[in-house]
Amino acid sequence: MILLLPRKTKFKKQQRRNYRLAQHSVLHKGCIGIVALENFWFSSKQIEACRKIILRYTKRVGKIYLNIFPDKPISKRTEGSRMGTGKGSVDYWVMPIRNGKVLFELRGVPLSVAKKALEQVTFKLPIKTKLYEKNWSCFT
After folding, report:
1. pTM of the model
2. Following DSSP, what letter does each residue of 57-78 receive, concatenated?
3. Buried-exposed string 102-140: b where 16+ CB fall within 10 A, e elsewhere
4. What is the largest CA-CA distance in the chain?
């Protein structure tokens, strides 16, 4: 399993930050995509699971665009450690998602296959999402 994580960062660990305002849901590269309707942290394991589902349903036809990359490290201390020993090591990587963000986009896939693949992806996600289509001319 290939997990996404940055090769190099300026600092090993980050502080927690608040979510920003909603983003506009616009498809830039693909014809159909998934838009997040809630804020959440998208982990690298979830991204990989969704990518595998899309590859399985499209049978590696067409192009998949991942508009997300986990660049925020989440640290975790060992269970039972005492106070004052500092921050724990990096456990996993996440991407903070705000509502209105386009997560995945597909191009070059028939509409029925694309809808079925993205519908299966929404079952894996812990938030509400919706399908967003551009126009009918770009489907094969």
Report:
1. 0.85
2. HHTT-SEEEE-----EEEEEPP
3. bbbbbbebeeebbbebbeebbeebeeebeebebeeeebe
4. 61
* Cα dihedral sign, 97-5-133-117: negative
Tokens of 70: 């986990």
Mean pLDDT by 10 residues, the chain (140 residues): 83 80 78 92 93 93 91 90 89 91 92 93 93 73
Cα distance between the two ends of the chain: 31
Give domain 32-74+88-133's CATH number out of 3.40.50.2300, 2.60.40.10, 3.90.1170.10, 3.30.70.1290: 3.90.1170.10
